[in-house]
Amino acid sequence: MMVIGEAVVVNSLQNFCLALEPLLRRVVSEEVENNLIKYSRSFTKSPPLRIQGLEQSSGLQLIFGKKLMLPIFTGSKILDVDSGPLQVVLVDTRGEQLVSTCLPHPLKIEIVVLDGDFPADDRNTWTSEEFNNKIVKERTGKRPLLAGDCLTVALRDGFAPIGDIEFTDNSSWIRSRKFRIGARVVPGSYQGVRIREAMTEAFVVKDHRGELYKKHHPPMLEDEVWRLEKIGKDGAFHKKLSAAGVNNVQDFLKMSTVEPQKLRRILGPGMSEKMWEVTMKHARTCELGNKHYVFRQPNCTITLNPICQIVNAIINGNTYSTRELSSMSRGYVENLVRQAYGHWYSLEEVVDQYPASHHQGSSIKSLQQQSGYSADFYNEGGNNTHIRQSTSAYHHHHQGAVVDPNIRYSMSESSSDGELTPKKFY
């Protein structure tokens, strides 16, 4: 009976296994198929081996192509130092130099605002978490800090131009008083190894109302005189100059040429020698343009540049360059210049079609290179005050006279008749 029972059990197990086999095969087949599908999808999402190796090196980084143009004001377009739009570039940092590179697919880049204190100690490494934690958001009740339609851009072929963006709030309310602009890959849009974020230098964002009072570099002749350094709009110096008829930068430079001691007295002791030097240094960068001014008398005609420096003269039918004028009476020539200065707005205006240079700074540099002289000279006047002046280089041919850029004449209020002593650059 036991043998019969065991045979029945074995037969039952065999029948059960035969019945279970199709089910097991189906389950195993489904699992294998699912795993193959997952593996296939993962493989198709992986970058090519060459790019994969590049990303695994963690050498990819975003950078801004150029520094920012400063200062930055709220409501004003943010530009680079060359007045162009900002640009984000993808580079490989593994070598000794940054090398621009690109991926075979576009990257979504987001422009953000960072705290100016980040990263600590100006270190050049940080984690994504540290970067994200230093993103600055707008103040409660305010608009987003950055405004514009280019806060998310596509990086293709290794670079992404940033269009019109601007700040809506100043930076005075955060502890560092400064912002940075950052760029990161939009979270979740890229599956490779991390690409390090970009950030600009730290900078102050000023309220747009301050733009109305900012200085111009370089100043223009027609700029109001308060555009010069150390002269504040509606401040004491501005009021003193306005009361004396010195309203713009050209007025300031003309007086500094012809009546430097008077100009110094107008500003008074409140302007220290150091402040004076700063103001004059800024004024000397002014672009003079290509206009000349002609003063005519019965027996002479003199030509001056826009800041009342003599260019040439025709006296009794003879044409004199500035060098040749050194043989003339000092008092006579100075008197002519003073008369021209006093009748400035009735002078004949002419345009030089072939100016050698319009910018004092570049002219001075050129003269230094050609002659080896320093471009500054001194007018000595009352109280032993030394007042620096500058000159522009006009290799100008006017009515046959050639301007000698190496000579200008000292104009002082206490001059007397005698031989005119030219002041060379030294």
UniProtKB/TrEMBL annotation:
Q: Which GO terms describe its molecular function?
A: calmodulin binding; DNA-binding transcription factor activity; sequence-specific DNA binding
Q: Name the UniProt key words of this record, in alphabetical order.
A: Activator, DNA-binding, Nucleus, Transcription, Transcription regulation
PANTHER family tied to this protein:
OS02G0177800 PROTEIN (PTHR31713), PROTEIN SAR DEFICIENT 1 (PTHR31713:SF42)
Source organism per UniProt: Turnera subulata
Superkingdom to which the source organism belongs: Eukaryota
The Calmodulin binding protein C-terminal domain covers 291-350
Major localization listed first in the record, in broad terms: nucleus
Stored Pfam families: Calmod_bind_C, Calmod_bind_M, Calmodulin_bind
Quick check: keyword RNA-binding in the entry? Answer: no
Looking up InterPro entries in the UniProt record yields: Calmod_bind_C (IPR046829), Calmod_bind_M (IPR046830), Calmodulin_bind_N (IPR046831), CBP60 (IPR012416)
The record's GO CC annotations read: nucleus
Q: Which residues form the Calmodulin binding protein-like N-terminal domain?
A: 60-208
**Protein name, entry field:** Protein SAR DEFICIENT 1
Calmodulin binding protein central domain: which residues? 220-286
User: Might you name a Gene Ontology BP term for this protein?
Assistant: regulation of salicylic acid biosynthetic process
UniProt entry tagged with the keyword NAD:
no
Q: Where in the cell is it found?
A: Nucleus
Q: Which family does it belong to?
A: Belongs to the plant ACBP60 protein family.
